[in-house]
Amino acid sequence: KIIDKNTEFEAYVAQENKIEPKDWMPEDYRKLLIRQISQHAHSEVVGMLPEANWISRAPSLRRKMALLAKIQDEAGHGLYLYGACETLGQEGFTAHRDYTYEQMLQGKAKYSSIFNYPTLSWADIGAIGWLVDGAAIMNQVMLMGNSYGPYARAMVRICKEESFHQRQGYEILMTLCRGTQEQKEMAQRALDRFWWPALMMFGPNDDASPNSQKSMKYRVKRESNDSLRQRFVDVTVPQAQYLGLSIPDPNLHFNETTGHYEFSELPWDEFHEVLAGNGPANKKRLDTKINAQKENRWVKEAALAFAAKEEKTT
Ligand code: FAQ
């Protein structure tokens, strides 16, 4: 009976139908989504930190306003995603945001490796917009077509906002690259720092990606890690050329036959170290979030007390 239901489910999603919160779904589908959506939400809220580092040092009021708006957008993305994740909660499957967030604070749930790198100069803010948001969009445009309705719909709005983020980053770098020699060098160093970590955002190579098969079967992932990474390289290299910057990969070259850029193997040891909690800023990011939760607990408690009081009087 269960096998029949699973087969029916797979056929249903294969026909591009969306699954909604109250629909029946296999347990491993629910589990896969809670894992991915909550990790995605954690990435959005931890991802606010590297950029927040530069709010008070943005070089002009206009830059500061754009950066503030971008970071607030990331908080909003986190909220939609925690909300989408919560729709999957039911007996045996805890998906409440307090719980999933706590898992992240305890180092039990992942967030994107990219946010464990520090932002050392203003040019890094440009590189994050251009490369990190650029890579995020590449992945999230695919996710707009994923089979779970609330996640797919959240992606539509998130992608629109990410494309503004990507352009504000590229524009920062365009300005720096048209500036003094020193500014251009600062932009080059930012690209050198963020190139490989940005490529790692797409995850391990396809043959080392344990979740891919199931994710593809259930139409959560619609394209493989390597195929998205390749597309990202293909669109980003000409953008670097336009800026007059060089990609820090001596093996990078265009293959006329395939129409794609070929590039070096990624530094996977570094990727695994970052995932194991040993990246340059892992500890700092978690400490910041843990302290923020402690210091701001009174705000949450006050809001809850106020809501309870309101409920009593109405
Ligand atoms: N970092 O079997 P796979 C943003 C983990 S965008 C850390 O291939 P899967 C916007 C993976 O979770 C960034 N962990 O896994 C923004 C799994 O571990 P698990 C967030 C990684 O799920 C911009 C294990 O490795 N975007 O935040 C990474 O099929 C600027 C094996 O990997 C999303 O989360 C990594 N890079 O494919 C915000 C998109 N890669 O869970 C602020 C949604 C892999 O079994 C500023 N997620 N792992 O313990 C996805 O599309 C997928 O989860 C992938 C990984 C593609 C990330």
From TrEMBL:
Highest taxon, organism lineage: Bacteria
GO MF: phenylacetyl-CoA 1,2-epoxidase activity
Primary enzyme class: oxidoreductase
BP terms from Gene Ontology: phenylacetate catabolic process
Residues making up the signal peptide according to the UniProt record: none
Record-level GO cellular component terms: cytosol
One Pfam family named in its UniProt record: PaaA_PaaC
Keywords: Oxidoreductase
EC number per UniProt: 1.14.13.149
UniProt KW Oxidoreductase keyword: yes
Name of the protein this chain belongs to: 1,2-phenylacetyl-CoA epoxidase subunit A
Phylogenetic lineage: Bacteria, Pseudomonadati, Bacteroidota, Flavobacteriia, Flavobacteriales
Gene name tied to this protein: paaA
